[in-house]
Amino acid sequence: MKKRIFGEIKGIFEGDSFDNRIDLSISKVHRPTQAGISGSENEGSDSIVISGGYEDDEDLGNIIIYTGHGGRSNNSKVQVADQTLTRGNKALAISCEKGLPVRVIRGYNKQSKFSPEEGYRYDGLFLVKDYWRDKGKSGYVIWRFRLEKISNKINLLDEVKRNTVSEPVSNYGSTVRQKYFVSRVIRETRIAQYIKELYNDACQVCGIQIKSQVTSYSEAAHIKALGKPHNGPDTKENILCLCPNHHTMFDLGIISIDDNFNILGIDGVILKVHPKHIIDKEFVKYHREHHYKKLS
Amino acid sequence: MKKRIFGEIKGIFEGDSFDNRIDLSISKVHRPTQAGISGSENEGSDSIVISGGYEDDEDLGNIIIYTGHGGRSNNSKVQVADQTLTRGNKALAISCEKGLPVRVIRGYNKQSKFSPEEGYRYDGLFLVKDYWRDKGKSGYVIWRFRLEKISNKINLLDEVKRNTVSEPVSNYGSTVRQKYFVSRVIRETRIAQYIKELYNDACQVCGIQIKSQVTSYSEAAHIKALGKPHNGPDTKENILCLCPNHHTMFDLGIISIDDNFNILGIDGVILKVHPKHIIDKEFVKYHREHHYKKLS
């Protein structure tokens, strides 16, 4: 088994064309030669191919409403049964909740103005911003996914110095983060994903683990903030795994941490720290002195 | 006392010039004729003027690191004492936590390439994305604010039909929402602000009210999601006041609501509903049928 690659494939650029599914597979852009969704029920989905012109798909260019798989007859693309949140559908749901980037490949399809003239074209990275159950045109249950293109235009992190990081290696380029008004899905860096996995998504302040039907959810909080003028690094030593409430409270300086990892702002609570997670006390001190509001 | 206007002023457009502070004041773009920060300790700040070339300001164009007021001698712009999180500084902090848009006016200043050649220029709406305590160049405590321009370029809500709303009247245009990697500050619509105020920022699921040093924090959750293909409206009947954790759980379909306002997904909990808040059960049904994941 080859390791699943999330994000850009080295040497492949947006707009690159491929004659057929075999070429796509060899290039690693989309491994399966038949399935439209590449992914697993544990790791999430790393790429999809849009080519079928499925009756419920809607391709709006930078926004794609993608229909899951299953429940179709072998010979046609028409629904004949309900879809379930399993296999590729579950993989896409995990990519949504974990903020994993999904490579989108469009195949020739005379019904879509966004499809290539022939063959297949790699059209860049998207985030699954939302997913939901719906009734398809045939009356059966379908699972739908809203994919949004990760913008190259505005990258607030242009200003963040890309710090030298040895492990784990980032395998998906720059660290664009966005928020869609419907959900709080953001794209996390590989480092952030690593810390969240280390804690199994349990909050380091309260221990809460938000469990969904497909995976669990937490947020990566940078202790010394990224961006000007703080310029904190995107490294393990500068990241905490927090629930949304404690992330908010940390960012707003309602809580902070002392040098013994006591939580300031909540009496008698100590930050839970995994033995493999070395937190840099310089960053903690920076947060305390600059962001913790009670000092004043 | 005239009502404080947050957001755009009718008839005034980005790039409009003003000869002096009196004209600025009459136009309502920036009411005070002396102070750099317009705002109050209860409502937040609605506008600032950047003109002083204060020693700790940094104008990067679409990002401004703005220094608070206080602690300066009358005759110079040099710090002679610590600043406190009061008056205009507190107002800007509230605008940060509430996601209120701040009008930015730049005055002539030979040290900044972003300043106008003469007089004053209205440069559009910004969000205060972060604020923190720092040591200024003079060694005294200063309060700093990171302002980011609200982008006109990418407006995901272009697709959202602007629904006819009678009350409360939106006084700040379109509903751009963004997320900066450091904070979860987003721009809320006037309607969303209204609902959050109605509940005094207490979560309708768990009752938690996240209190900061300057105000309290909650999030507005749309029951039937905005945007394609859901096209839920931005109206009171479609908005809940939630803490970040329950907002996340609601958006991910971990929890939902039945027709008697019992919370689905958490046993024995009923949604707290203010008598003035009429929730449309059609939207609740939509969320339950489309987003609540346990059905499957």
TrEMBL record, chains A, B:
Recorded GO molecular functions are: endonuclease activity; ubiquitin protein ligase activity
The answer, when asked if Transmembrane is one of the entry's keywords, is no
Protein's UniProt keywords contain Nucleotide-binding: no
A Pfam family per the record:
HNH_2
Listed SMART domains: HNHc, SRA
Q: Which InterPro entries match?
A: HNH_nuc (IPR003615), PUA-like_sf (IPR015947), SRA-YDG_sf (IPR036987), SRA_YDG (IPR003105), UHRF1/2-like (IPR045134)
The UniProt keyword set, sorted, is:
Endonuclease, Hydrolase, Nuclease
By its UniProt entry, which PROSITE patterns does this protein fall under?
Answer: YDG (PS51015)
Q: Name one GO biological process term.
A: negative regulation of gene expression via chromosomal CpG island methylation
Give residue ranges for domain YDG.
7-149
PANTHER family assigned to the protein according to its UniProt record, in alphabetical order: E3 UBIQUITIN-PROTEIN LIGASE UHRF-RELATED (PTHR14140), OS04G0289800 PROTEIN (PTHR14140:SF27)
Q: What is the protein name stated in its UniProt record?
A: Putative restriction endonuclease
Question: In which organism is this protein found?
Answer: Tenacibaculum lutimaris
What does the record give as the organism's lineage?
A: Bacteria, Pseudomonadati, Bacteroidota, Flavobacteriia, Flavobacteriales
